[in-house]
């Protein structure tokens, strides 16, 4: 079994990669930083030394790099069983105050990367009539909030992409799930002062994804929303 997780050098992506490796999946991961990616590869291999771990430095905002990553995946794995489109950038700010070009930058990383990578890996999934695509959306995909700015726009768009993909692929027996976590203990929240239990652990997101994958093939969880017990911050 083979899985692809983008943006997997830390946080939610790394937790998912470690969980799937522990369950016996060969893993393909990517990130922009070579050092954190190498460290993540080492940690994932420790979860299960028997699995293959393909780790590539990729800027997911660059279509050419995304397509090159897809080509390496297709050359390494005969098919992808789980695709987790997790790569994303979180930059808060009001629309009228954020820097020029931020929307385009966030759309490229948060939405276009998932679009291009999914399209590149779909042919083998369709041929084998098997696969599960998880798009990492956000609670921001469902409701506007102050200083959501371009980030919120991209998360609405990713949820729309996910819903459309679900409709298109259901007759091909390919499951599609939107996963929308609220505040999670990742690098995006560095410097935030709060009790340790105020943010969700990334391992919880990984466990929910695993649970959705293990359901019967005729069952799909279309949307998953997770929040801290005390609500959003």
UniProtKB/TrEMBL annotation:
The keyword Protein biosynthesis does not apply. GO terms for molecular function: oxidoreductase activity. Keywords: Oxidoreductase. It comes from the Bacteria. GO terms for cellular component: membrane. The keyword Cytoplasm does not apply. SUPFAM superfamilies: NAD(P)-binding Rossmann-fold domains. Belongs to the short-chain dehydrogenases/reductases (SDR) family. This is NADP-dependent 3-hydroxy acid dehydrogenase YdfG.
């Amino acid at each position: 079994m083979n899985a692809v997780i983008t943006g997997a050098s830390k946080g939610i992506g790394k937790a998912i990669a470690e969980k799937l490796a522990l369950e016996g999946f060969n893993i393909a991961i990517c990130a922009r930083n070579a050092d954190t990616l190498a460290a993540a590869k080492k940690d994932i291999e420790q979860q299960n030394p028997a699995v293959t771990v393909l780790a590539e430095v990729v800027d997911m905002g660059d279509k050419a790099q995304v397509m090159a990553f897809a080509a390496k995946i297709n050359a390494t794995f005969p098919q992808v069983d789980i695709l987790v489109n997790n790569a994303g950038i979180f930059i808060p700010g009001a629309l009228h105050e954020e820097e020029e070009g931020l929307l385009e930058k966030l759309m490229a990383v948060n939405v276009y990367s998932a679009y291009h990578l999914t399209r590149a890996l779909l042919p083998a999934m369709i041929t084998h009539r098997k696969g599960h695509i998880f798009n990492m959306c956000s609670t921001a995909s469902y409701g506007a909030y102050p200083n959501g700015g371009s980030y919120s726009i991209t998360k609405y768009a990713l949820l729309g992409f996910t819903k459309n993909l679900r409709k298109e692929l259901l007759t091909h027996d390919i499951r599609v799930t939107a996963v929308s976590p609220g505040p999670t203990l990742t690098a995006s929240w560095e410097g935030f002062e709060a009790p340790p239990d105020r943010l969700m652990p990334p391992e919880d997101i990984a466990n929910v994804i695993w649970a959705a994958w293990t359901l019967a093939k005729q069952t799909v969880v279309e949307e998953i929303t997770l929040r801290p017990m005390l609500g959003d911050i």
